[in-house]
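Bench log. Compound arrived from synthesis this morning; before running ITC I wanted a structural hypothesis for how zinc ion sits in the protein. Inputs:
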Amino acid sequence: MKTKTEGIVLSVSDYKENSEKISVLTKDKAYLSFVIRGSAKMTARNKIFPRTVYEFIYDEKDGRDMYALQGRNLVRSYLSHDLKKDAFADVLIEAVRRITCDETDALYEDLIFVLDNLQTSPYLYGSYLLSRLLYYSGFRPYVDGCVVCNSNLISALSIERGGLVCALHKRATDIDDLDRVRHFRHLQLLQKENLPLYKEEITLEDFKILVDFIERHLDLRLRSFSFFLTL
Ligand SMILES: [Zn+2]
């Protein structure tokens, strides 16, 4: 039986005999992989692009972790053809691809919301998405008090210890710029509808702190972020 599902392409890679394999985060079927026959040929007309939303058509009874793609309809594309903007969106896509989450329906909704708004304030919406990823992956930073003693007299953010710290538990390497600490805390607690209030406040520095947090606690390196910083 033919099944249709909407999803966003997280990666496209070569597969055997002129085929390509794509990884997709779907709206309601978590993560799926599809093989597209013949799409790696230079003349292929069925090219699929990363960072693009399609409705995918496949036969669910194939029943493995990978399906042969039978058809697709373009829903919307997030390719801006501006190198720097695209490179920033790729950082978010790489994070979504590499951080495993159980709540994929909510993550999908957040990712589409962020990509729809990304150009208005990239670091704000990007930071929001990384914060949601931390939440869904179970690596939520502790921001309700000092992560060691629970005191609410906060004086720094300790990436190493996974949350805020008081003056007593602060170490030399912790971040003690109080604007940064406040932004980090707010990003973990923010509701979507309040994001515009932070439009002017969240900068690349705030985004970098979240990348550091993810890289340390989830033990991975976001290569696309290193590339973005070279542009
Ligand atoms: Zn403390």
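What the model suggests: The mean pLDDT is 93. Residues 146, 148-149, 151, 165-166, 168-169 surround zinc ion (CB under 6 Å).
ITC booked for Thursday regardless.
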